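Problem statement: downstream parser choked on a complex file, so we are re-checking the raw output for the iron/sulfur cluster run. The parser issue turned out to be on our end (a line-ending mismatch), but while we're here, posting the original submission so the record is complete.
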Amino acid sequence: MKTLLVAVNSRYDHEGLAVWYLKSACEKKNIPVTVHQYTINDSPERIWSSILEANADVVAFSCYIWNRRLVLDLVEDLKKARPGTVIMAGGPETCYEGAENDYYAAGVDIVLKGEGEYRFPMLLETLRDKGLDAARQLAENQDCCMDVSEYISPFCPEYLERIKGRISYIESSRGCPYRCSYCLSSESRKLVFFPHEEIIKDLEALVSAGARVIKFVDRSFNINEEHSLKIWDFIRKFEGCDVSFHFEINPDRLTEAQISSLMAMPPGLVQIEAGIQTVNTGALKAVSRVMDVDKAIENLKRLAGNGNIHIHTDLIAGLPYEDIHSFINSFNRVYEINAHHLQLGFLKLLHGTRIRREAHLHDYKYRSYPPYEVIENRYMKYTDILRLKKVEEALDRTYNSGRFTLTLEYLLNYFPSPFDLYESFAGYLEKKGMLFMPIAAARLFKTLREFALNIPGVDSYSLDSYLALDYASSLKNTVLPDFLSESGIEVLDARKYLEPFIGGHWKKSYQKRFMLLSGSFPGKMGENFTEHNNTMLVDTAFTDPVTGRALIRPFNGTLPDY
Ligand code: SF4
């Protein structure tokens, strides 16, 4: 019986886990299966032809919100072309009340719910030995709890061959003890930790295979202090290995021991993602999210201030009881953390979640197709949501790009709050017809400058100084862009100043590596130059492993100590 597992991932650089779990589980029972991986950006013809040409007796699809429509179409076509093929579907999009009906209607024979690595091999054996009806019955008999002693590593040799230079996921625990009403993980029955020694073995294998980023999909990684500290202690050995590790944490639950462990991490080795979602206690209560917001913000500020960890924070717009004013307050409070990335997300009313079941209580209107995003509710009209979408766009283009750090910090002095700055810039982009449009990085620098020059009080010389530094540091481009050529900022001849320290090279190599800027750089901006400086050096050969930006130092006639 020839079996094909099909995964359509959202991006090429991410390697999904689910199908590899299933493959490993089947191989453990000597059931051969083949994995085909695609992305949603692949041509449908390519996916279609390669599935058909596999000539499989069984085709199993892994279903998520990003591939739902595509998978339904593929299933429908496949059933027409090869009616004898047994089609299975599993994954979050098939699991909850009524969600399976669309898959059955498209032609799926068996919808597999819950954790597949135990049930899928059984299902194939039953199908092979007893036929389709028996397999269907087995699939309907749901829910066996997993036994941690039976951890099945998804990282088979084929997976490891594919992962070089890409993002791998790993799971050291499954389930979440919390019950946030908008989250599918809240529906899982229990939290299970996988054996430490197995995870360590897998981490070694992934790093040896050349994974660029290893993302733990554990829902609340720090919930068990001992477990998290063991793994954090272990990964320190990978300092200098060109790999980083990503963890989702509950920031208010960080213990002092965990904070110390994170603060002692080599710069750039660890990234953390911390969902705050809202600071509105009524909204938190309504969605059963247990969080001490003040503690969460305080802990994240401490970590961000230490500068060794890339920090991603999340907000969700559209929660119950949160109106536009309350959300703006949440935004400004979370902005204070000074994280590297602030995601302004919008509530998704996912199949199977309590918030979807209770949507009528808050007059939710939401998209009936993935990602089931909120359109409006009793507290925010669609006009408010649209207003926030525009701010999200401006925030992503600027703050979250990491390119405008100094310029934004300067501009914030001229706005009552961070939200006002981003909303104002969104309005400017809209006026110029550039909102929700692709904009090249250099053009965005120019556009931000034009916007800023209209702000009362902004000093053009200081503004241009920061823009020039941001430009060189983030784009690693040491030639002043045209739009700053008349600014009065001067690029000094790096060779003339640096040759005594570095030795003789061709002038061009100096110009390529360094930018020596004469301008006005007020103090208190960025960690490396707290006092006013007139000359700054950008060295593109040294990149901050956390921000990815080139090193900036004041230049006082001597080469700074790196
Ligand atoms: S949102 Fe996070 S903490 Fe809440 S249930 Fe989901 S995974 Fe758990």
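For whoever reads this later: The chain has a mean pLDDT of 92.
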